[in-house]
Write a structure and sequence with these properties.
Length: 338
């Protein structure tokens, strides 16, 4: 049995309905600012092997809106060719032009992915009303006209400037029953997440804020689609596998301390710096302008602190430090692409 076949067999079936750990995958970039398909596929394999249930491609952590439509399509095709099960993928179709959104969504749906992640438009920001947000989503749904469309709404006002209000969610849910199947909430407000879960219990609500996972799961959220799992998948898996909400909360300080190290500067650039160091692949260190790679010496300080943090975790929760050694200087790469 090949590695790809084994991976597909071990992740057969759709994403779990409860306690779902999905990663908002970072995207390695070539020197022509295109997704590095080989590194991306290897990263997705590692994440699934490390205990993640699914992968969200080309979201905000993955710099998705910065890539050309054809390059995002090619990136998805490469991941599927590498043996990543389509039903374990959520694909972001966020873009500025509605034809680009529908092209990306059709391509992903034809490939059989779990669902489409879509953020409201961002150009006019404070000028976009609830009515405008509703019309945007309704127009995309109408133009796709696809049976089996599963749409995950994306609330991230810090990025796009447009909040996804419960009123808009309700209109879309009632106007297009069975099409809106999920909501990713990256607003960082636990009270809002809980409101979404209680108001739309039939939808899969994902928190994008890792430290909110224990409370979100306790009120009925489906799980998380998060960026931290790129570099701490085993710790995040341990949180999901903890038997009670109390046990999950005990892991929050560990996650918070790692997050604080990564968030000193650009989060996406910090994630990529860690993956560059761990894999030895320079493609991980490239960022698409206007975001820059971390400057020296801040980059080195962050890396030293992060890998020291990883090595301090209980052995089964470490991602990079060798699990069978007490030497916090010994780092084991996740996976080197051949």
């Amino acid at each position: 049995m090949t590695e790809a076949t084994g991976l597909a067999a071990s992740h057969a079936g759709p994403l779990p309905e409860t306690r779902c750990l999905a990663v908002a995958a970072a995207t390695p970039v070539t020197d022509t600012f295109r997704p590095d398909a080989t590194l991306l596929a290897a990263h997705c394999k590692m994440l699934l092997e490390a205990g993640c249930d699914g992968i969200a491609l080309f979201g905000t952590t993955g710099e998705g809106p910065e890539f050309a439509v054809r390059d995002r399509m090619a990136g998805l095709d490469a991941v599927l060719t590498a043996g990543i099960p389509a039903k374990r993928l959520v694909v972001s179709a966020t873009a500025l032009a509605i034809p680009d959104i529908t092209d990306l969504a059709r391509h992903a749906l034809t490939a059989g992915v779990d669902s489409i992640l879509l953020m409201p438009p961002c150009v006019y920001r404070s000028g976009v009303t609830d009515e405008g947000t509703y019309r945007f989503y309704a127009t995309v749904i109408d133009r796709l006209a696809r049976d089996g469309l599963r749409l995950c709404l994306y609330h991230f006002p810090d990025i796009c400037g447009v909040p996804l209000t419960p009123r808009v969610v309700r209109r879309l849910d009632e106007g297009f029953p069975g099409i809106v199947t999920g909501i990713k909430d990256s607003g960082g407000d636990l009270g809002f997440t809980e409101t979404l879960v209680r108001s739309f219990s039939h939808l899969g609500v994902y928190t994008g804020t890792e430290i909110h996972v224990p409370q979100a799961l306790a009120v009925g959220a489906r799980g998380t689609i998060c960026g931290l799992a790129n570099v701490m998948p085993r710790l995040m898996r341990a949180m999901f596998e903890a038997p009670t909400a109390f046990d999950r909360r005990k892991l929050v300080p560990l996650i918070t301390s790692g997050d604080l190290i990564l968030s000193r500067q650009s989060f996406a650039a910090s994630i990529k710096a860690v993956l560059t160091h761990a894999s030895g692949q320079a493609g991980w260190n490239r960022m698409i302008p206007p975001i820059n790679a971390l400057p020296h010496p801040e980059r080195q300080w962050m890396l030293e602190d992060f890998f020291r943090w990883d090595a301090s975790l209980p052995a089964p929760m470490r991602t990079f430090a060798a699990a069978d050694t007490g030497d916090d200087q010994k780092i084991t790469p996740l996976r080197r692409a051949s």
